[in-house]
Amino acid sequence: MPTPFVAPSEQPRLPDAYVAEHGVVQALAERVGGALGWPGVIAMAAPWVEQVRKNPAPFWAMESLLREYPITSAEGLALMRLAEALLRVPDAPTAIALTADQLGRADFDGASEGSPHKMLAALSASAISMSKRFLPGAEDDGGLFKRLGAQTVVAATVRAIQLLGRQFVLGRNIREAMGEADDARKQQKQLRFSYDMLGEGARTEDDARRYQAAYVGAIKAIAAGARADSPEASDGISIKLSALFSRYEVLQRERVFVELLPRVWELIELAANANINLTIDAEEVDRLELSLDVLDALAARIALIYPQWRGFGLAVQAYQTRALAVVDEVAAIARKHGLRFMVRLVKGAYWDGEIKRAQELGLAAYPVFTHKQHTDVSYLACARALIQHADVIYPQFASHNAGTIAPSCRWRARPARRSRCSACTAWARAFTARC
């Protein structure tokens, strides 16, 4: 019988998350310092930007959507909320009601002359008669079509649906997703994918068991595919701890180790035996230190049973004020156990929730940066730190920003660092530039 996991005594690993932002940004900027070399960054990034401009995104792409409806506008927010929420709506009536509610909150008739959105009105005309039968209140005096205009409503709906289908979801199941990935590789053989079951958190143990089964099936399917020479060169799986245990929280620390860790270990054994990578996805800031404790405990067992496996890792969110400290702590854990982790640096996905939670609690500061440029500075500082820890960390850089990708590639290209640059990995749920 496997040795049970036991929760160690709780010890602080990181500085306080709720500190003045200005001081944190200043320290990060000093950390990057003169190593940035903006002339070289511009020289590397400019051709990428030029190519994007010469080859604009298709009408259904997120870039096109945000050009017409910026995220700062009511229309952009409504569509992005819809795009995210529809992924988790289990039934058609709720999805229809949600669509009507969200699109009814904004004025989509405000598109400027010459906007590509005007062309979409013609595309949507044939769908109006069908849409009237589905959107609630469409024929009423105060209905959605009366308030917003039938063509713009249907066009916006088409855009949101296309956004979902083309950019966020590769398939309804792992087989479909792997098929789409294989098709993409016909155009770019170097692409790698990390598959995510879209589980944002189990509310019941039935949910957790369902996610566990989905992860097990996905790992087995990936393992049955084409084998790579190393985990770094293979496709992999991303898992969320909160999807595997309905009480993944600090106050249930002992239960986390007793109940959650055996479930994660089952997945680790499958991934290690298949020599593919397994990434622990990021959680909210209040569970960050708990996640590091879990990482430490799992790493200790990996070092005993699978010491040669180099596919274990986690995602680090650059928008957190403690992101750089997280990178250093992860490196320290890897050194302690004689392992090398795969670490994926991302911007972060829970900004709204972190801000709202801090406001509700009346805290004096936020645990995340409140300005995009501050997150960019943090990303660069973390990228440089990951590269400096290359003896125990295999860095992966996930970003849409040419200004953050280029420095990472330049730092990795220096002769002192010989490991392959993994800013060139494409993930199943987010585009990552390749250098």
What can you tell me about this protein's structure?
This protein has 435 residues and is an alpha/beta fold. It has 2 domains: 62-167, no CATH class; 170-413, TIM Barrel. It has 18 helices and 6 strands. The protein has helices at 21-32, 38-54, 62-68, 74-85, 92-103, 116-124, 128-134, 144-148, 150-168, 174-187, 205-224, 241-244, 253-274, 288-305, 323-337, 351-360, 372-388, 402-413, and strands spanning 194-196, 236-239, 277-280, 312-317, 341-346, 393-397. It has a 6-stranded parallel β-sheet. Helix 4 packs across helix 9, helix 6 packs across helix 9 (150-168) and helix 17 runs parallel beside helix 18 (402-413). The protein starts with 20 loop residues before the first helix and ends in a 22-residue tail after the last helix. Mean pLDDT is 80; it is low at 116-136 and 415-435.
